[in-house]
Amino acid sequence: MNLHVVVGFGPAGAATARLLAAQGKSVRVVTASGRRPEPGIEHVALDARDAERLTEAAKGAAAVYGCAAPPYHRWAGEWPALSSSLCAAAEATGAVLAVLGNLYGYGPVDGPLTERLPLAATGTKGRVRAAAWEQARKLHEQGRIRAVEVRASDFFGPGVTDGGHLAARVVPALLRGRPVSTLGDPDAPHSWTYLPDVAAALVEVAGEERAWGRAWHVPTEPALSVREMAGRLAGRAGTGPVAVRRLPAVVLAAAGLFSPLLRELKEVRYQFDGPFVVDSRAYEARFAVRATPLDRQIEATVDWWRDRLAPPG
After folding, report:
1. Which of 2, 64, 91, 172 is 20 to 30 Å apart from 166, CA to CA?
2. CB neighbour list of residue 281: distance below 8 Å, 6 or more residues apart
3. Strand duo 146-151 + 96-101: pairing
4. With b meaning 16 or more CB within 10 Å and e meaning fewer, what string describes 255-264?
5. What is the H or E stretch that residue 196 is in?
6. DSSP reduced 3-state for 187
């Protein structure tokens, strides 16, 4: 079976679909609105929460990649139906279910995050993400589906825009030599997972039977603070050192009145108020994908943003 079905076409879904197409796979992307076809990629419009229609779209697939996510402020209401639909499609078609997860399910912890930690989050978003994986894992253990999850820290790199903490709120400013505002402690070590590495890991584990049945952390370079990352980005951009300022809580609260995204970030602010470090050694000990060297990440990200912001013509 050469068909691979990618559910969602945000930064991670797009990177995954394009990587599969570059590998010569037949790729079908499922989104609510659909898109024009592109080389090697078919786009289908349907609501991925509709298990019957998603199953029909996934017939004959070797793998289904769960890369979709509801709008941030609607996670609690929409994640359960989406995750149930993905599991139902995997069970009905026999496709491997490869899910893109995150680190919310662990909740606040002391020390580096490893896959051995319990999914002990108490916040709504953390519990929703933990429940989605627990549902897939239990079905896998019952022999009803084959499932695997990869968990990434904050996305970083080409293609990451509004949802990235080192993206639209940071890079355009530093490209112009302007100060950067950030959540939490700008000097706390923080792990940033490079978007192409997310796609590479997701595709790799989907095809590795020994990966199935558990979650893995995407290979991620050693943690650096927002201030350190901004300095490296500015260095590549040639704009010199830029000021990095902590966004005051009162400003964040006021902005949250108008921005659902900023309002919902309150639950996971702990990730930026202190060290937030991902340990990906378990993945690296067993599989081939490695984190892209940081210098290449920085170069590609700055160049991508330069092209994106360049005036037409």
Report:
1. 64
2. none
3. parallel
4. eeeeeeebbb
5. helix 195-206
6. coil
Question: Quick check: 79 and 126 in contact, CB under 8 A?
Answer: no
Place of tokens 């084959």: 146
pTM above 0.90, yes or no: yes
Residue with tokens 């904050």: 154
Q: Tokens 């592109």 label which residue?
A: 38
Query: pLDDT tens digits for 109-160?
Result: 999 999 999 999 999 999 999 999 999 999 999 999 999 999 999 999 999 9
CA angle 273–297–160, rounded 5-degree value: 65
**Rg for the chain (alpha carbons), in Å?**
19
Angle, nearest 10°, between helix axes 294-309 and 226-237? 60
Q: What is the pLDDT of residues 9-41, one digit of tens each?
A: 999 999 999 999 999 999 999 999 988 888 999
For residues 19 and 6, give the distance between their C-alpha atoms in angstroms, rounded to a whole number.
11
Contact 108, 276 (CB under 8 A): no
Burial of 75 (0-12, 13-18, 19+ CB in 10 A): buried
Contacts of 290-297 with CB under 8 Å at 24 or more apart are 290/197, 290/219, 291/194, 291/197, 291/219, 291/220, 291/221, 292/194, 292/196, 292/197, 292/221, 293/221, 294/221, 294/224, 294/232, 297/156, 297/157, 297/194, 297/221
Structure tokens at 28: 């079908």
